[in-house]
Amino acid sequence: MRRSRSRNIQPLLREVTLSKNDLVAPLFVDENLTAPRPIESMPGQFRYPVTDIAAVVAELWNKGIRAVLIFGIPRTKDAEACSAYAPGGVVQQAVRSIKTHVPRMVVITDVCACEYTDHGHCGIIGKTRGGMDLLNDPSLELMDRIAISHALSGADIVAPSCMLDGVVGSIRAALDAEGLEEVLIMAYSTKFASALYGPFREAADSGFSFGDRTTYQVHPGNSREAILESQLDADEGADILMVKPAGFYLDILAQIGTIGLPVAAYQVSGEYAMIKAAALNGWLKERETVIESLTSIKRAGADLIITYFAADVAGWLDENE
Ligand SMILES: [Zn+2]
Asked: From ligand 1's centre to the CA of 151, what distance in Å?
């Protein structure tokens, strides 16, 4: 085997190499801010005011990043998430601004209600047999409205993250009825109830006032259920499937790749925070660890990787050329 690993031969035989086209940069836009605010649990990441977002995205474009995923933090929250689908809402403003200044950047928007509800759950809540919980069907129409408003603002891809049953089919029908057939759906099709989302809740201000999300996300121990979740979204018309988090779930990622649709993997806030914290302590080399983590995610079958390291990686790939 060592014949093939000599310094000159090895690069020719490499099976998986990262490229900038694999990367999606997640960004937080906060309607309450007038200047960028650091996210403490995610060193190097910021919440940006709407007025800054086009410049931030232009910088990513210049580094070679070709897709961003937008999360919004609104000024007002209520039980019905009204600010999530307002034409003048934070995501809607941000998307219009990005599309005006960096029109070729692919803009993906997170479609959910948890940043916009005062209770912090991903849709409409009400009484169920198990107590107060997220109601499935009453929340679907809300997701349709959010998706349509994002698409009308210029989003290329809408990404429902709520794990409601039937949400992909519902949004597909709603978009088509509005003449928005060209807009893709990237489903958060297999989303685990993970402890790794902790830092994100600070980033997106989406903690909840009661309960948790274990009644709508997949338990980390369930593999068949995880595959079925993505298969159902494929059947409902998803264009891209997703596994979230990424690094702890490479087996699931590899299996979902066999469904046949493109697959995205979301390297989540906790995965970012773990590498950052170890690197800041001098316990791991950041660059090598990040590249290895992303290469592993790609090797497992991801066509797209959503990662907070996107801008850094783009710079490192340039240095390697
Ligand atoms: Zn949510």
From this structure: 18
